[in-house]
Amino acid sequence: MELSGSEVVTHEFPPYFRVYKSGRIERFKKFTPVLVTVEPKTGVEIEDVTISPEIGARIFKPKIDGPDQKLPLVVHYHGGAFCVGSAFDATTLVFLSSLASEARVIVLSVDYRLAPEHKLPIAYDDSWSAFQWISTHSKGNGPNPWLNKYADFDRVFLMGESAGANIAQQVAVKAGLVGLDGFRIHGLIMAHPYFADHEPDKLIQFLYPESSGAEDDPRLNPKSDPDLAKMDCSKVIVCVADKDWFKARGVTYCGTLKSIWKGDVELVETEGTHCFHVFNPGSEEAGLLRQRFGSFINLA
């Protein structure tokens, strides 16, 4: 059967999506949000919040020991090449509820808008807007009661995996530039971070048409960021995996930080593939990595 002109495929990026001449985008994997108020295995309570008409978030709260207890706050940005993933999917649910329970932390995962429907830098803009909303709770009078009552804004951490780690780093840099009212970011957890290589990345070129390219864009290449030294946190942990095709980029990022930025930088290498701790959270290796995250947070 001959296809109509509008059904001609103009771009295809497996395993993510294809684009037709009409502008229609077909995603290869359908996403269904998991609606839950308590994660049954951990007992972690879940609350979904609306930050703006375009941005949502999911908050994970472990059992609280007493009405006055405050726990570290981890702000999480999910991975997925800027074009897949969600704060509300099953994978994120299992990973973050386990982290919240084991590390005894409040986690807020930001659901930023995805490319290609919303081309970059929208994901960065949404993530910063969400962080500004979170910051309104630092004096205990923000719109969300859980954050007001239970989040310790003296112990705030940013966390992301893959593209989400890239976003987390950008939020930390911007926080250092504009300043935060009443608190600062204590630490940054970079798990298997995605940054561009010197080779052209056709997916990123399509998702981010405004970019000046891998060599010059500070969002894609931290070496080219004149504001990297101003990043607002005290310490960073960079996690890489031995079978991850992005391992070298994570190691390079760690070296860049050590040469430019004055905080503490720790590099952790484990066995495994890209984002194994998210895709297979029940594995022994994932559990050990979550322990490293918990130690990094709670030894603040």
TrEMBL record:
GO MF, any single term: hydrolase activity
SUPFAM superfamilies linked to this entry: alpha/beta-Hydrolases
A Pfam family: Abhydrolase_3
Domain Alpha/beta hydrolase fold-3: residue ranges: 74-277
UniProt cross-references to InterPro entries, sorted A to Z: AB_hydrolase_3, AB_hydrolase_fold, Carboxylest/Gibb_receptor
Gene3D superfamilies, per the entry: alpha/beta hydrolase
Family: Belongs to the 'GDXG' lipolytic enzyme family.
Protein name per its UniProtKB record: Alpha/beta hydrolase fold-3 domain-containing protein
Organism listed in the record: Rhododendron simsii
